Amino acid sequence: MSETHAFQAEVQQVLRLVIHSLYSNKEIFLRELVSNASDALDKLRFEGIRAPELLAGDPELRIEIEVDEEGKTLTLRDNGIGMSREEVVENIGTIARSGTRRFLESLSGDERKDAQLIGQFGVGFYSAFIVAREVELRTRRAGADDRAGVAWRSAGEGEYSIEDIEKPTRGTEIVLHLKDEEAEFLSDWRLRALVHKYSEHIAFPIRMKGRAEEGAEAAFETVNQASALWTRPKSELSDEDYQGFYKHIAHSDGEALAWAHNKVEGNQSYTSLLYIPAKAPFDLFGGGRDERHGLKLYVKRVHIMDAAEQLLPGYLRFVRGVVDSDDLPLNVSRELLQENRLTQQIRSAVIKRVLDLIERMAEEQPEKFKSFWSEFGQCIKEGLTEDYANREKLAKLLRFASTASEGAEPTVSFKDYLGRMRPNQTQVYYITAESHLAARHSPHLEAFRAKGVEVLLAFDRIDEWALSYLHEFDGKPVVSVAKGDIDLSQIPDAEGQSAASGGELPEGLADRIKSALGERIKNVRGSTRLTESAAVLVVDAHELALHTQRLLRQAGQGVGGGQPTLELNPGHALTAKMAAEADEARFADLATLVYEQAVLAEGGQLEDPSGFVRRINRLLVA
Questions:
Q1: Quick one: pLDDT at residue 111?
Q2: Which one of 6, 370, 410, 599 has the fewest beta carbons within 10 angstroms of its own beta carbon?
Q3: Mean of the pLDDT values across residues 513-526?
Q4: For the segment 398-412, what is each residue's pLDDT rounded down to a tens digit?
Q5: Where are any strands of DSSP class E within 166-292?
Q6: If residue 135 lies in a helix (H) or strand (E), which one and from where to where?
Q7: Which domain range does residue 472 map to?
């Protein structure tokens, strides 16, 4: 008996978007349906290890594509795991578990980008409605009785029908009743071309009917490689082969930026094929770390899991690829992977191969590395906080803007910096700020300019956090110019520049200012940082920069540490004016204004802007 059900509301949204928004990229439907069929075959092969009877009578796993030109139907069938009635309803009638809401939120209006999201969210089945006016699905779960078949039918307009049927074979058959204007997908050569384009390296045979011999029905013939690409020798594979396989595993029309293909033999044997995408996945940041990322894991060519995150650290979550082990147990779980010694060895090797690949790109293909850094540079910075063992390798990859480079583009490496260090310079200097301009124009840099000392400009939100984990590079301490004491006295002045004044303030001035400012500051002292500005705020060496403290407060997080120290330029006219001021009320105004100027120069906000204006006005008219 047939029953009719309404689609879940979010499914209807997906259907409308898929049918109407992705029409110009309609050929992706075949990629998605073949990919789903391949997944079903993988699942059966895996379950068949423990229950060989599931494959009884039909052990040759395959995908078939068949055309009926007269009936205008295109049929895809597999003899994979199949579905029960409950699974059909769960997987097709409702897809809340597939991240549908995230899918809808992620749509950008860019058809090419949106097409790439379809497979990533497990809603690829609905791409059939791009070309079909109606879709029929017949399925039976492997191991179930012939009478446990299920038929599903829908025109994609808000409802579907479902009924129990008798189906003598396991697996799933999907019949697309094509729209009149989609006759191109009844063409044998067109379908073969799409299989070659999108599904050449599916590890199961994809079969289509060949030419019919006179008096006999046409036989099915394999139209793809039907072998795991990573098992083939590198000498047999072209760039086109590698890119085609990347598009398959990444559910993407985009290309990979670089890849590494390695076979390891010895104490343990495994093959890895690792890809760096040309573009960052949509969910790389902003919640992406909470999603499962990782490599496809195979054991002896048997697909075990899609996202073995145990094989990659979080900061390399953008890497796509495959690991195929000969030594891991076939029943390995995520928990066992976490504890398995072989897993840890593979993980270490995978990290090394990825970082070596990126390092070679930086050395040999600088333009390609520039593109990589634009997409994934922040992930590499995350690595400094997560991966102590590879911190030196990661540090070599870092890029910054600097006072020696034009513009905000991060092109300067630590190696570049060391090659330009001044005589007697023993430290690597950097400054963190909320923006490139805030960093470049910071008063903290004045003495460094006078000495001709380069300073790295770091203005990504992660920089303060990441650089706090990097204490040195190539034996040189890595130091913030805005923290602690800075001594540049051993470095000669740059030609034509005047050094900062000495650090001694007029007697008693520091105590008077401290008294006037109270708890807003920790201390007052003379500065060796300043040549032009009157004052600057400095935090202790191991405290967070002031702009980072502000960001944390805005996010509702507590901030440890004490108040900043106010450093005054001993040679500035305002310092002399304060020292000479006998009127305590005017002195308090001057001291407060100098402090507030320092706050503004750091990019901070004043607690009492109107009080700042009143003080300015009082001093202007006095």
A1: 46
A2: 6
A3: 93
A4: 999 999 998 899 999
A5: 171-178, 206-209, 220-222, 256-264, 270-277
A6: strand 132-140
A7: 398-497
Distance between CA atoms of residues 174 and 194, nearest Å? 18
Quote the distance between the C-alpha of residue 72 and its chain's center: 42
- The separation between the first and the last C-alpha atoms of the chain, rounded to the nearest angstrom, is 95
Distance CA 311, CA 77 (A): 33
For residue 293, what are its two tokens?
């990322």
CA dist 528 and 526 (Å) reads 7
At CA 170, angle to CA 167 and CA 173, rounded to 5? 75
| Nearest-5° Cα angle at 243, 241 to 246 | 110
Cβ contact 343:349 at 8 Å: no
Q: What are phi and psi of 149, to 5 degrees?
A: -70, 160
Last residue of a domain, one of 469, 497, 525: 497
Q: Is 375 exposed, middle or buried (0-12, 13-18, 19+ CB in 10 A)?
A: middle
What is the helix (H) or strand (E) element at residue 472, kind and residue range? strand 472-473
Q: Are residues 176 and 41 in the same domain?
A: yes
Inside any domain, residue 420: yes
Task: Transcribe 608-620 into DSSP letters.
Answer: -HHHHHHHHHHHH
Q: How many domains does the chain have?
A: 4
The pLDDT value recorded for residue 140 is 97
Contact (Cβ atoms closer than 8 angstroms) between residue 330 and residue 351 = no
Residues 6+ apart with CB under 8 A from 542: 483
Are the C-beta atoms of residues 523 and 566 closer than 8 Å to each other?
A: yes
Parallel, antiparallel, or unpaired for β 535-538 and 270-277?
unpaired
- Which residue shows structure tokens 């109107």? 610
Q: Is residue 388 part of a domain?
A: no
